[in-house]
Amino acid sequence: MASGPQSFLPDLCTNHAVFTLVLIAELLAVVLVLAGVPSTQQFWVDLGLVSLFIQITVLCTAAILCGLRSRFARLPVQTVTLIAYGLTQLLTLLCYLSALRLYEFDSFKTILDDPSTRLTALRNFAISSIVSLAALRYFYVQHQWQRNVRAELQTRLQALRARIRPHFLFNSLNTIAGLIGEQPDQAEQAVVDLAGLFRSSLEEKDTVSLAEELDITRHYLRLEGLRLGERLRVDWHLPSDLPLNRPIPALSLQPLVENAVYHGIEPLTEGGVVAIRIERQGDALWFEITNPCSPTRTRRHEQGNRMAQDNIRQRLQLAYGQSGLFTIQQTDDRYQVRCCIPGGTRS
User: Fold this and answer.
1) Closest among 215, 203, 211, 202 to 247, alpha carbons compared
2) Each residue of 229-252: pLDDT tens digit?
């Protein structure tokens, strides 16, 4: 997730933002032309001219705001709003005067002396003011909503870090106590694994490397392996070219594996296999965790399983937008979770 100060204005440098602006500008052009009730023959001509004027104004404004975005991050909201609003009105006026200068008038003095052009300029100013203020208000509300969501998810992440269940801790300590006398080496490794889990729960980082997330997951699986014995079998599928230094959202794999063990393996008397597969597709990483299902799953198990999954899904969507995919496939005897971590974050 992005950190540090951010402007409430969206990133207008992206292809998605430019496409959205072009589409909205064209819809506005159609509405304005239709409002004039033109003749059939004149409609397409008017639409072409109005579209050209609006598209040039919108794209020029977006280009300048894109270049100033890093500076806006250090300015108060009121200042950014005034700059963006003033810039939009200035470019609207300049584009209108330039169009008149090119197609109808010989000089700017002639333009200013003509009453109809002054009236049209005032009309354009009013339309531009309404649209730009509505857009700025929408961007601000959207930014505030994202901040609230980010704060809520940050709180959930902290709760997820602190979620070493007392039952799990009690079982781990009992297991370690039972190993000290007969298998001291395994007991020492279990203490190291438990310490690793506690250390990760105390860290405040929003992102960790893929190698760190894998280490945390292995710590957890080794501890559960000591408790469940042969009932827990883990099948790792890790390609040799994994980018282990790649930053990913913290606790994006371990809670899913914990769910697979707690809600999938533990209720089964015979146990089962937890399959953990990580695939690299271009710049994206795909996590896939598969576990057997118990036919006697209780409502408590289903709700507990859903909490961690919802947390991870929402954090991925906040960090990566629609690219942060999260899917669940469930049958009578099989439960599979797949999530995608794209190559970059959404600002």
Assistant:
1) 211
2) 889 999 999 998 899 999 988 888
**Residue 148 CA from chain centroid, whole number:** 14
What are the backbone angles phi and psi of residue 168, rounded to the nearest 5°?
Answer: -65, -45
State the alpha helices, DSSP H only, in the chain. Answer: 15-35, 40-72, 77-103, 108-113, 115-161, 166-182, 184-202, 210-228, 254-259, 299-320
What does the pLDDT look like over 1-35, one tens digit per residue?
A: 444 456 788 888 888 888 888 898 888 888 888 87
How far is 71 from 68, CA to CA, in rounded Å? Answer: 5
Euclidean distance between CA atoms 9 and 14, whole angstroms:
13
Contact between 66 and 13 under an 8 Å Cβ cutoff? The reply is: yes
Task: Say if residues 113 and 119 touch (Cβ distance below 8 Å).
Answer: no
Residues in a beta bridge with 274: 234
| CA pair distance 190, 222, nearest whole angstrom | 7
SS3 call for 286: strand
Report residue 186 as tokens: 């395994």
What are 9's two structure tokens? 């204005």
Cα of 90 vs its chain's centroid, Å: 34
Report whether 250 contacts 208 (CB < 8 A): yes
Torsion angle (degrees, nearest 10) of CA 147, 251, 329, 278: 120
| Residue 334 Rama label (left phi>0; alpha psi -120 to 50; beta) | beta
pLDDT at 238: 93
CA atoms in the 13 A half-sphere facing the CB of 48: 5
CB 81 within 8 A of CB 52: no
Helix or strand (DSSP H, E) at 279: strand 272-281
As a whole number of angstroms, the distance between CA 107 and CA 42 comes to 27
Residue 186 · residue 179 · CB < 8 Å: yes
